[in-house]
Amino acid sequence: MKKVSQKTLFLLSFSALLFSCATASLPKGAPIVEGFDKARYLGKWYEIARFDFAFEKNLNNTTAEYGLRDDGKISVTNRGYNYVKGKWQEAKAKARFVGADTRAALEVSFFGPFYAGYNVIALDKDYNYALVAGDSLKYLWILSRVKTIPEDVKKDYLALAASLGYDVASLIWVEHDK
């Protein structure tokens, strides 16, 4: 039997890591919106609630704007006001569909070849409110086309998220005062 070199093991391990980062996943049992119309989803969304994590730490007035790129991918511009630093911050990314673009399973990259899951798991028929799951129970967003969300939609989205195992009590409710 041929012995495998350390370099080969490293390259295989690194390739496996890249592959795992490049494939979107979803918490067990989470639905994906089918019959998705990407053209209707494009535009500006206000972040109503999220779990706190490093990239959005100390941000309020957060929005996401989606556009269609020439290569067919989706442009992503996330913007928020850092209330600790007293200034606006912006991050740009690209998103691509995992499979057909009529299924709301995407992956987003802010850093080169590294992608993370972006899955729309609930969406109203008028494309005004969305519940978005990342690739684990650590990432969840409630989005709206306006700075508020109706109480019944909020209640439904929280119930769905809780049924999937999300700790909805840990959500940060985003201020939109700027």
Description:
With 178 residues, the protein is α+β, with helices and mostly antiparallel strands. It has one domain (6-173): Lipocalin (Beta Barrel). The chain has helices at 6-21, 38-41, 151-163; strands spanning 43-50, 59-68, 74-82, 87-97, 105-111, 114-123, 129-133, 140-144, 172-173. It has an 8-stranded antiparallel beta barrel. Strand 2 (59-68) and strand 3 form a beta hairpin. The longest helix is centred in the N-terminal third of the chain and has 16 residues, at 6-21. It starts with 5 loop residues before the first helix and ends in a 5-residue tail after the last strand.
Helix content: 10-25%
Strand content is 35-45%
Write the element-wise H/E pattern from the N-terminal end onward: HHEEEEEEEEHE
- Classified in CATH, the superfamily is Calycin beta-barrel core domain
CATH architecture: Beta Barrel
Question: Which word captures the global form?
Answer: globular
Secondary structure tally, helices: 3
Mean pLDDT, rounded to whole units? 87
> Which structural category do the helix and sheet elements fall into?
alpha+beta
Largest beta sheet: strand ordering: 1-2-3-4-5-6-7-8
Cα end-to-end separation: 66 Å
Report on the biggest sheet: 8 strands, antiparallel, barrel
- The overall strand count is 9
Low-confidence stretches: 1-24
